[in-house]
Amino acid sequence: MATVTCPECEAQIELEAGTEVGEIIVCSDCGVDLEVTALDPAAIQLAPMEQEDWGE
Amino acid sequence: MTTVSIIGGSGYGGGELLRLLLGHPKVEVKQVTSRSHLGEYVYQVHPNLRKQTQLKFSDPAALEPVDLLFLAQPHGQAQHNIEQYAKLAPKIIDLAADFRLRNADFYETWYGEKHAAPEWLSKFVYGLPELHRAEMATANYISGVGCNATASNLALLPLIKADLLDLSSPVIIEIKVGSSEGGAEGNSGSLHAERANVIRTFSAFGHRHTAEVIQEMGVKDVSLTMTAVDLVRGVLATAHAKVRQGVATKDLWKAYRAVANENPFVRVVKEQRGIYRVPEPKILAGSNYADLGFELDESNGHIVSMCAIDNLMKGASGTAVQCMNLMMGWDETLGLEFAGLHPI
Prior knowledge:
By secondary structure, chain A is an all-beta fold.
């Protein structure tokens, strides 16, 4: 199981078995979207997130 | 079972404490005292406890010895009777402000009167487990915590612990509070006509809970500004400060994550999507969690650190039960597992 570091908050994230390049995962600590860019070795980068109006 | 009694059980803090203790697996509540409600069933004052207990309010003069005594009286009473209470129980947890401050002069500065039992101040451990967990394991006497002080101290804790603040700049803490902070006695300001829909800054600075922040965080230049809002339960502390030069968002994540990992009731709430992106007291009603969040303006080092709690739980009775668990060597979370409600 590969572990990657969130570029936003530096949380350690374990990639699940079967994760594919191009897949979008979510950091469990800070909630950013992350794109898996490589698997050997594993690498991720911030994925663009849609800005939402959250009611304010 | 460990036997406990509550002195002064008719207020909101006492009622919340009783609710928690009745559901606690290692505790038997023997007596709950109230002079004003003597002889009444406790559920007649705390209606949520109907069918939970048949206890009636007792006379304080008829208290019997127990393993642990909770004091939930209005501020200023316990210090006059502490010698008597200590004869009734080897362990005491006081929810009021009588024994929160370590220094008698400091107490007089903030409370405007001399302490009636200054020799007892050093015997009490300040009652916030996130700051004094190890001392509580061997303590016989634990103080209460101010609800606003708790929200403020926890908002600052990751920053102070990791030494990230530039303390040459002041720390300003804006606090929004619900009406139950005012207690069950009521006054003209708590009439529905006056309190409903309110956003009222009732203390710009000088609030007594400031003393607990100075004492526990070691921050001298700190102000708490209190604003009453249209909530029954809840406190939101929003602290403004400066971080040391070079501190970045990643450093803050590390500091906040460390505090959350060390403390079962502290959570970091800093979400990128959805409605609940920052700490909010609304979803904490009845739970013992303290939710922390932060935002940093990296261009000038201005940090906004937030802490939301339920004032009657993490800010009073929930923390008191957590202190009991630590004092007795039990799992810290025992009897405090309720996660809160959503929606509410």
